[in-house]
Amino acid sequence: MATAAPKTDPTGPQPPMLYSVMSQEESWRDALTSALARAHAVNFRAPVLIQGEAPEIDAVIWPILEHFTPNQRIVWAGSPSSTPPTLPAQLETLEAARFQTRLGQEMDCLVFDARCGFHADAFAALTGTVRGGGAVLLLTPPAPRWPSFDDPDYQRILAYPLTHQDVDGHYLRHLQGRLDNARGWLRVSFGANAKPVIRETHTGPDIQSNTCRGAVHQSTVITALRTLSAGQQDALVISADRGRGKSAALGVAAAHRIAEQAETILVTAPSFAAAANLFKHAEMTATELGLDQERLKQRLLFIAPDDLLQRLPTAEMLLVDEAAAIPTPILASLLEHYPTVVFATTIHGYEGTGQGFPLRVFPLLDKRRPGWRHMTMSQPMRWSQGDPLEAFINDALLLNQYQPAPLPTTWNENELRFERLDGESLLCSPQRLSEIFQLLTLAHYRTTPDDLRTLLDSPGLDVFASTVQGRVLGAVLLSHERPFTEPPLIDAIWLGARRPRGHLLQQLFAQQMGVRKALQRPMARVIRIAVHPERQGRGVGLWMLQALKKILIQTDCCLIGASFGASDSLLQFWEQAGYRLLRLGGKRDHVAGAYAACVATSLNSEGEALISQAHDRFVRRSAFDSRHIFAHEPWILSQLPISAQNALQAQEIELLQLFVEGGRPYENVEDLLQILSAYAELTHLGEKAARLWRAKVQQQQDWSEVARLTGLSGRKQIIAQLRECARVLLASLETAGTPAG
Q1: Nearest to 613 by CA among 574, 661, 580, 656
Q2: 626-635 long-range contacts, Cβ below 8 Å, gap at least 24?
Q3: What sign has the CA pseudo-torsion 12, 18, 21, 26?
Q4: Do 332 and 364 form a contact (C-beta atoms < 8 A)?
Q5: Which of 133, 288, 329, 686 has the greatest count of CB atoms below 10 A from its CB?
Q6: Rounded CA separation 431/681 (Å)
Q7: What does the pLDDT look like over 346-355, one tens digit per residue?
Q8: Which residues pair with 20 in a beta bridge?
Q9: pTM attached to this predicted model
Q10: In this predicted model, what pLDDT tens digit does every residue of 526-547 receive, in sequence order?
Q11: Order of strands across the sheet with 340-346?
């Protein structure tokens, strides 16, 4: 039988539970049949927890799955511990990390095998594909052993060289505590005699669904979509939890508009699969309306975001499904071109973008579409309101709050506190944990359910919180990057052959900024910083960074850094905090559409030396970037410390040698290749090689054009030839005795 929660209850006060414990003689088959019948009657999903050793679980799980019929679909997330028998229903196995391939689909039963790792994003997403009347079977080791279980999913949060033994299992304790207090679950566990003990917590009438203020039903959204004024400056945002039918609403409304007004409607989304449900409902509605399917296909067109931005075909309306997963600059460009635009997005996006969408896009809409409207859908479509599984997921994964509670109305600066919180203290303070996680979710578009596990379990992570009168005002997540000590590993990282997990800052210094010594120095990286909305822009973030520096200056850490999507305001913030800009990436982030920036501040003389060397490389690189990468970004140009491109320095020649040997990508040294052109005669190259060099290095033509001019097959072959060209030109410098700068 499942053990009780720890003495310090991580879930906080709970209402009394209504348990019915069945005798060991009573068949769990009868219990399951009853649970499924009750769930089917009210259109709920039936959650079943099975905890035990592998043979015990096998003895129960396969007979349960025999309950499903041939026309029903079962997905097993993980890997069965024994050979599946012949089952009446369709059984598919799925690696949990590939959960996004099932979004938008529907199933009758999900087996989530936590013995293969509890992937929180996958669990939240896949349960949302189960229909009402179906079942979700969660398989775990025995309850007493689960928190100390060597969870394979730990590999995603462990920095090198840490192992699962460095993890305390706080997250699994959190889950077990929430499961112990969850309503509507059927539990099958095993005692010392290996016989199943069956327990059920009934769904009480007080279960509340997770709804937003001002939420509306699908029919209201369809009406709003049908009455949008085509061709006018109008915009509508539709947000919803998963399973609310937003994609279906888009499809139904699109079919009506085409039938009634013969409009051309464009659809874009991160992939066609993400919009498949929209087209499915459009086709069904077209059939009901008597609209010819061929006409629908001519008028309702899917175009991928990048392709749409290049072609910009004419249309009366643009529908953007899963808009939060599309880079903001693309959304901004689409708003410029199309007068009537609908953005639909998932609030709790398991891509990690949902709740950050308002932060990025709402200000854009305020500026370019005054009077735009926002509608939130609340009524589930796959199951009924009050579904116990949804209530559990929102509670256990901390998805059940949309706005942070207000701060105390009266307080002064002397009451501010800044403290480090470990996993144990967070587990035992559920309100504080919830407040911190909520601020992080609102502050950053990439926060996902998985980040709660990182917060509680990552052994290389420190959580700092600023509080006032016990309420969380702000939070900082800090990752410690330990120095590498093994010469072969250091060499492999320097050569680009290894990228150990959890050492982003050190590897940025080494591989992007050419500072090898950084691999052997301890560093700290701010991975998230968040401030309560009521106090943003009032110096709280700067105060926290100052407090953090005072703490870390007492340690052996040599510098603090951060990497983030650059914006004018963010760069100003970090500059005010005393951090120096050391790098701007040459490619936009695929979600936020921003260039990656790296900043750092020193804590001692060692750190200052590393930062100085990295900044020297940044200055040299900036002359190239100002002409080729950021030429049309005036706000970035103002940040670049541009200097003249003098002769190659010794460390830059070393970086070029690494490029020749395959240890650096082309983009890492493209500025140095241009400088090399100024000091080496292209006559050392053959005619074809010189033509290649001029086209790509000197003229900066794109890869497809260079391939056309040279007859090479593509990027890979072009880079191989450029490496050989660079080898020849470097050798010619050495032969000529050209001095380094």
Answers
A1: 580
A2: 628/670, 628/700, 629/584, 629/586, 630/584, 630/595, 635/568
A3: negative
A4: yes
A5: 133
A6: 68
A7: 766 444 444 5
A8: 200
A9: 0.83
A10: 999 999 988 888 899 999 999 9
A11: 215-216, 373-377, 234-240, 340-346, 317-321, 265-268, 300-302
